From TrEMBL:
Pfam families in the cross-refs: PGM_PMM_I (PF02878), PGM_PMM_II (PF02879), PGM_PMM_III (PF02880)
Ranges for domain Alpha-D-phosphohexomutase alpha/beta/alpha: 49-187, 217-320, 362-459
GO (cellular component) term, any one: nucleus
Protein name as catalogued: Phosphoglucomutase-2
InterPro entries with a match to the protein in the record: A-D-PHexomutase_a/b/a-I, A-D-PHexomutase_a/b/a-I/II/III, A-D-PHexomutase_a/b/a-II, A-D-PHexomutase_a/b/a-III, A-D-PHexomutase_C_sf, A-D-PHexomutase_CS, Alpha-D-phosphohexomutase_SF
Location relative to the cell: Cytoplasm
Cofactor(s), by name: Mg(2+)
Swiss-Prot/TrEMBL keywords: Carbohydrate metabolism, Cytoplasm, Glucose metabolism, Isomerase, Magnesium, Metal-binding, Phosphoprotein
Gene source species: Magallana gigas
């Protein structure tokens, strides 16, 4: 192969062409080299994807910085060697592997299985695509040491990912992620046999968990069902979309556990399709743009409630048709309030003598504090974690070991964990629990929207405004946060944002929190991500953070109106909207940095 004239690039180029046996990615690399595209080759060859607590998630294509056969094999080799080193029973207990309907997901899962089997580690490899929640469920069911899910969740179609669960059924956290990352770098040399993934099904170490898990998952799902007889004659007609993902067949099975008839499918979106042809982004969180076909189907079938899973069915979006004919798409915080209230209400209905102080609900730090408010009144406990279900899943295992019961956990990005059968967000169980709640409410001549308003009137309104900007350049994002830490070259954090004075600042990137006597935050610090929280003197709390899986700079704001301070709900909402605009103007500075606002 002709060299590029860049010795560093040429060395890595030769290395790649020596180890890659996939004709597609070899040809892609060859073409870049022939065209002399040195800048692109540097991006693809000189920087590896970083393995972290989210595992891997990236675009698919050639090179060490993307998802492909080479990087999947190398990652699996590192994981396998780490398991052999740290888990003495891994050759007995094994590993679960699942995959979604994206391009290459089945292939990547098969390659991972081959690597593990080569190391004499048994594998439970699903024989067909499955929802992400089935993998952590299977880890607990089979008591395996680890679980791997090949998915990029709701990311664009060119992305894929490699998500890792540990033996406790929760996503990995530090120091496990760091140990795996180091092991990957120590085990980059690919064995010839690692490419032979076509024959793994014939290996005695490869088993298919599908039928066993399908039955067990849906049997355990019944523990979340409280009014099955009423569900069988539900007054609600549900419309369902799987967003071109895996959810539909599994939701139909779950409906049987709860006694529901099958939901009305959005026919254009219920079959798996890795091209996601009807949506710009396969993400039901993106609002009306993602749910247009669902609304059309629901309107045509006189259906009042829409349930939407993302492509790997671990998240749930909900919409309801109001009396004025308009659709209300519930935010993640609103669904969290509804499901949190219902989890509490239905549990105490069945177990009135259960010690209330032993019950827990969890939410991430950027999510609404409505569960804290409800808990303060009703007596159950509330715990806040860092962003991401890896933290809530691991905290739930800790609480269970202490004899506590976790009823519910959620994050505002439409992720919900009902019970602890799955120690991760689960869009299928959440869809069933939400359906039972809706059935109960409609049977009582009320609606989800009305119930939400009743919850807020009972416990206090929690108003929020969340969104994001898009930026693919990490240097610009870093500079934005550095300017906040050195506001107006003062060497200090800002004391105000426009006219709104700031009372406290918590920076979980550098480890600073001036609301604490020693200025050290309670939540863990992570230098690898940006996250600053502002508590304003008027009570508004705003968090700015980067996403671990997408090129987004997110903001989350919430205020709880205090009538004693003269602000009703409308006044508080107006003030919150103004604070958001000030945050964008003074902190984000999108024109200066070239950030792209969210579009729906």
């Amino acid at each position: 192969m002709t060299g590029t004239g860049d010795d560093e690039v040429d060395g890595k180029l030769q290395e790649w062409m020596k180890i890659d046996r996939n004709e597609s990615t070899r040809a892609e690399m060859q073409k870049l080299a022939e065209n002399g595209n040195v800048d692109q080759l540097r991006k693809l060859l000189l920087k590896r994807m970083e393995f972290g607590t989210a595992g891997l998630r990236s675009g698919m294509g050639t090179g060490f910085s993307q998802m492909n056969d080479v990087t999947i094999i190398q990652t699996s080799q590192g994981l396998s060697k780490y398991l052999l080193k740290t888990c003495p029973d891994v050759k007995k207990r094994g590993v679960v592997i699942g995959y979604d309907g994206r391009h290459n997901s089945h292939r990547f899962a098969s390659l991972a299985a081959r690597v593990l089997i080569n190391d004499e580690i048994p594998v439970y490899l699903f024989s067909t695509l499955c929802p992400t929640p089935y993998v952590p469920y299977s880890v607990l069911h089979y008591k395996t040491e680890c679980g791997i899910m090949v998915t990029a969740s709701h990311n664009p179609k060119n992305d894929n990912g490699y998500k890792v669960y540990w033996g406790n059924g929760a996503q990995i956290i530090s120091p496990i992620d760091k140990g795996i990352a180091e092991s990957i770098l120590q085990n980059l040399e690919i064995q010839d046999s690692s490419w032979d993934h076509a024959t793994i099904r014939s290996s005695p170490l490869c088993k298919d968990p599908l039928n066993t898990i399908l039955e067990a998952y849906n049997n355990d799902l019944c523990s979340l069902c409280y009014f099955k007889e009423k569900n069988q004659s539900s007054p609600v007609k549900f419309t369902y979309t799987g967003m071109h993902g895996v959810g539909y067949e599994y939701v139909k099975k779950a409906c049987q556990s709860f006694g529901f008839v099958e939901p009305i499918p959005v026919k254009e979106q219920v079959e798996p399709d890795p091209e996601f042809p009807t949506v710009k982004y396969p993400n039901p969180e993106e609002g009306e743009g993602a749910l247009l076909l669902a609304m059309k189907t629901a309107d045509e079938n006189n259906s009042n409630v829409i349930l939407a899973n993302d492509p790997d069915a671990d998240r749930l979006a909900v919409a309801e048709k109001l009396t004025n004919g308009h659709w209300h798409i519930f935010s993640g915080n609103e669904i969290g309030a509804l499901l949190g209230w219902w989890s509490w209400f239905s549990f105490v209905q069945r177990y009135p003598d259960y010690p209330v102080g032993e019950l827990y609900m969890l939410a991430s730090t950027v999510s609404s504090k409505i569960l804290l408010t409800i808990g303060n009144k009703e007596g159950f406990q509330f715990e806040e974690t860092l962003t991401g279900f890896k933290w809530m899943g691991n905290l739930a295992t800790t609480l269970q070991k202490q004899g506590k019961k976790v009823l519910f956990a959620f994050e505002e990005a439409i992720g919900f964990m009902c019970g602890t059968n799955v120690l991760d967000k689960d869009g299928i169980s959440a869809a069933m629990v939400l359906s039972e709640l809706a059935t109960y409410l409609y049977g009582s001549n009320t609606t989800l929207h009305n119930k939400l308003d009743e919850i807020y009137k009972t416990y206090g309104y929690h108003l929020s405004s969340n969104s994001y900007f898009i930026c693919h350049e990490q240097d610009k994002i870093k500079k934005m946060f550095e300017e906040i830490r050195n506001y107006n070259n003062s060497g200090k954090y800002p004391e105000a944002c426009g006219p709104y004075k700031i009372k406290y600042i918590r920076d979980l990137t550098v480890g600073y929190d001036n609301s604490k006597p020693d200025c050290k935050p309670v939540l863990p610090v992570s230098k690898s991500s940006q996250m600053i929280t502002f508590t304003f003197e008027n009570g508004c709390v705003a968090t700015l953070r980067t996403s671990g899986t997408e090129p987004k700079i997110k903001y989350y704001t919430e205020v709880k109106p205090d009538p004693q301070k003269g602000l009703d709900r409308q006044g508080a909402q107006k003030e919150l909207d103004d604070i958001v605009q000030c945050i964008i103007k003074y902190f984000y500075q999108p024109e200066k940095f070239g950030f792209t606002p969210r579009s729906t």
